[in-house]
Amino acid sequence: xxxxxxxxxxxxxxxxxxxxxxxxxxxxxxxxxxxxxxxxxxxxxxxxxxxxxxxxxxxxxxxxxxxxxxxxxxxxxxxxxxxxxxxxxxxxxxxxxxxxxxxxxxxxxxxxxxxxxxxxxxxxxxxxxxxxxxxxxxxxxxxxxxxxxxxxxxxxxxxxxxxxxxxxxxxxxxxxxxxxxxxxxxxxxxxxxxxxxxxxxxxxxxxxxx
Length: 210
Ligand SMILES: [Zn+2]
Description:
The protein is α+β, with helices and mostly antiparallel strands and 210 residues long.
């Protein structure tokens, strides 16, 4: 989605909300969004940048299409006529930074144990190579050195965004936030889900064999 002011239509936003709710339920089912943690977003307009993002403080296994809000480049709420305002996730600002910098169409943020443990063991980045699953994130199964960046956590999304911008590798569609969780992204929500599943698998493997 890109054109002009499309994001202002409730239909488009609620459509994104329905997709985000369905994906959230999948991730919650995997145990990757414990409590009310984690959040997902989909770009609904590129210029100006607008993202539909899951609402804050709700069980991610029980979201409805209406549990969505639209945010701008700093994670600020943008009202949309016909959509009941919901409080966006506090982390919406980082979603927007990821989408702006990488061109991703969707961003997934989950709190998986493997991401946090891997970030603990490899604070300078998690090295991966010679493993078939790397093909799932667009890399090679052999002789391809991949490092998943790790950045320090912060409650300040602008600061976290700066750390992300500094650490991010255009050829690696994920970043670990230390003692916090994982961000991964793709061209659309389905692709972002596949990337997230593959990265999580790779991190579980790295932790298991170290
Ligand atoms: Zn989080």
